[in-house]
Specification:
Helix content: over 70%
Mean pLDDT: 82
Shape: globular
Number of helices: 24
Structural class: mainly alpha
Low-confidence stretches: 189-194
Distance between the termini: 60 Å
Number of strands: 0
Order of helices and strands: HHHHHHHHHHHHHHHHHHHHHHHH
Radius of gyration: 23 Å
């Protein structure tokens, strides 16, 4: 089997850098830390050039950590203990139940029948609005994205399009769900839930409390541009597969809704379960947390006589995505355990820019470092790793470190960085190229937007 030039380049570059880092003297790093750094660079290059499937590269890195005695097995695979990683599987089961029960189609028909005249633009705007509403009330990107995926499948079924295959309409509407949800959701509600790790770290470790209103006031000005850019991107890139000017379309939608009749049976049970998980997500009743609440409802959807999930559905779960994201979290944990954060803080302080006293230069450099390292580090791993680095450097006020950290980690980088994407990829209604293309586009938009904001003095945090 022939290997592409890009993969061959990545393979050679990754191995060369691994050997160089392993052999060269690096002051300030233990032998274990130096080996860990070499493995991380190797994995990062492999991910960028897609030398191996993402999951295989992640597992390779974790196995090398243990095999080369960089750290112990528990630390190397610690990411798989994170409850948020299991949301990939839980979310898939919820969305699948929404689809198989027929509830998704019913809700989709109700949505479509709200319009006297349908258009592609109206559908794009509708899902953007629903995404923002979800940002405000549901404390998990994966949680509300899975609801939107289920709703989109219902819309596709109502329009006579396949619910498990890519079409221009499905790809256009699904490509931005997880990506934009991650960018806007984590930033918009980060003072309460989205950045809980960052908020707790800043408060508990550094004594800096940032209220919800301070987060919201800081981020509100950064949200409109990605929304507008997304609308025009989808309109430009995707041409819908159906004719919205066909008068028979509307008559057919009304007839389908009428023929469904009253909700009952498995559809009713699924509706009750979905309502239950929404209440648990929003209210936090019982103290279950988002992940456990989702897991409980997902389990009930698999119970014979209650749910609609069948044995063969488990074969459609995106296990490689689950393995990949667990690997990236583990990688961040290993780097922190090896004290590479302290080494990096000292290294960065040797750069003139961090000693310049120029706010824009310092903040912009910090932001770009976070964006670039996000290529091979998951958000929580970056927060845990780089926040102590910047705080040790002491070149920015703590509240600005927190907000710029949030900006960098939630600027989307490539399809494997947003866990909710695993849900949409699992159904085949959008593929990696769609997500990658939109991801690169919106990343550039957000980078430009943030750099302009930093040049104008953003973030200005009220109350500090």
């Amino acid at each position: 089997m022939r290997i592409s030039k890009a993969k061959a380049t990545g393979l050679a570059l990754g191995v060369i850098l691994f050997i160089v880092i392993m052999l060269m003297p690096i002051s300030g790093l233990t032998r274990e830390a130096q080996t860990g750094l070499a493995i991380t660079v190797l994995a990062g290059v492999f991910w960028i050039f897609q030398v191996l499937p993402y999951a295989y590269t992640g597992l390779m890195a974790l196995i090398l950590f243990v095999a080369l005695k960089t750290t112990d097995f528990t630390t190397a695979f610690s990411g798989f203990r994170e409850a948020s990683i299991w949301m990939i599987i839980f979310s898939f089961l919820l969305a699948k139940g929404f689809e198989k029960s027929g509830l998704g189609k019913r809700v989709g028909l109700l949505l479509l029948n709200m319009f006297k005249k349908l258009s592609f633009s109206k559908l794009i705007i509708t899902f953007l609005i629903l995404l923002i509403i979800g940002n405000l009330f549901v404390p998990s990107v994966a949680a509300y994205v899975v609801v939107l995926i289920g709703l989109l499948q219902g819309v596709l079924a109502a329009l006579g399009l396949p619910t498990d295959k890519r079409t221009n309409l499905s790809a256009g509407l699904a490509c931005f769900f997880g990506v934009l949800g991650l960018i806007n959701g984590k930033n918009l509600v980060s003072g309460v839930i989205g950045n809980s790790v960052l908020t707790v770290m800043m408060s508990g470790t550094y004594g800096v409390d940032i209220s919800y209103m301070q987060w919201l006031a800081t981020w509100a000005v950064m949200i409109p541009l990605p929304l507008v850019a997304t609308f025009f991107f989808v309109k430009k890139v995707y041409k819908p597969d159906i004719d919205f000017d066909d008068e028979n379309l509307y008559a057919n939608l009304k007839q389908q809704l009428k023929e469904l009749g009253p909700i009952r049976g498995k559809e009713l049970i699924t509706g009750i379960l979905f309502l239950a998980v929404l209440v648990l997500w929003i209210s936090g009743l019982g103290g279950f947390g988002v992940q456990l609440a989702t897991g409980i409802i997902a389990f009930l959807m698999c119970v014979p006589g209650i749910g609609v999930i069948e044995y063969e559905d488990f074969g459609k779960i995106q296990y490689p995505m689950f393995i990949f994201i667990g690997s990236t979290v583990s990688l961040g944990n290993v780097l922190t355990a090896l004290s590479i954060d302290e080494w990096l803080a000292n290294l960065l302080m040797g750069l003139d820019v961090f000693n310049s006293g120029n706010y824009f230069a310092i903040a912009a450099t910090f932001f770009l470092i976070i964006v670039l390292t996000h290529i091979f580090m998951e958000s929580l791993a970056q927060i845990s790793f780089f926040t102590p680095v910047m705080m040790q450097m002491g070149v920015l006020p703590a509240e600005k470190v927190a907000i710029i950290m949030s900006a960098g980690t939630h600027v989307y980088q490539f399809p494997f960085q947003a866990a909710p994407i695993a849900v949409s990829l699992g159904f085949g209604i959008v593929d990696g190229k769609d997500i990658g293309r939109y991801g690169v586009f919106i990343t550039l938009v957000c980078v430009v937007q943030t750099l302009i904001g930093l040049a104008l003095g953003w973030p200005s945090v009220p109350g500090f």
